Amino acid sequence: MQRTLGIxxxxxxxxxxxxLPAGRSEAAGLQDADFSCRGAMLGASEAELFKAWGxxxxxxxxxxxxxxVKVYVYKDHYEAAVDxxxxxxDFLIKNDRYEARNGIRLGATSYWxxxxxxxxxxxxxxxxxxxxxxxxxxPHDHLLLGIDAQDGYLTSMRITSLPLTEEEAEKRAxxxxxxxxxxxxxxxxxxxxxxxxxKAEPPVLKEVRP
Length: 210
Prior knowledge:
CATH architecture of the domain at 28-162: 3-Layer(aba) Sandwich
Distance between the termini: 138 Å
Order of helices and strands: HEEHEEEEHEEEEHH
Shape: globular
Number of strands: 10
Strand content: 25-35%
Strand order of the largest sheet: 3-4-5-6-10-9-8-7
Number of helices: 5
């Protein structure tokens, strides 16, 4: 009787353990850390990038998604691009040994990708299939995970705030124009003193005699 009770108790404990949620800290869903790479965050300054990544092998200027950027190229196939403001707008990761959160790396399955970042539909971008995740509160920040069209495994990783569509590019341009057009509040309430300029006298027309 006691032996039977012991076996029953053990089975109950095993079943309870199996029912507990596994990997609670790695529950599906985006985190701010998903928009960073090797200690540098999307939107970081050049100084912050160099502090985290060190000096690049070289740099080049190119146009990505219609935006002129300076691309810093590092060993092991890492690239970081900054825009005219000097802030990071693009990470391109081509290293198959790089691991993101929860062990995500090139070759990861579609199941594991969505278990980590959440369920989403495949989208087409420039003819390729992607899982595209957008950072909450930052509509221009995207995590682009290229996937094999047939088998669904991870083929590329990119973290970017560059516009992905013409609509997003237009919206970004309008936002930039609005920011550049804002009047500095230090001068908004000040009037320009023109008293020292004097008053302009009306022009005197001289009669021209034949």
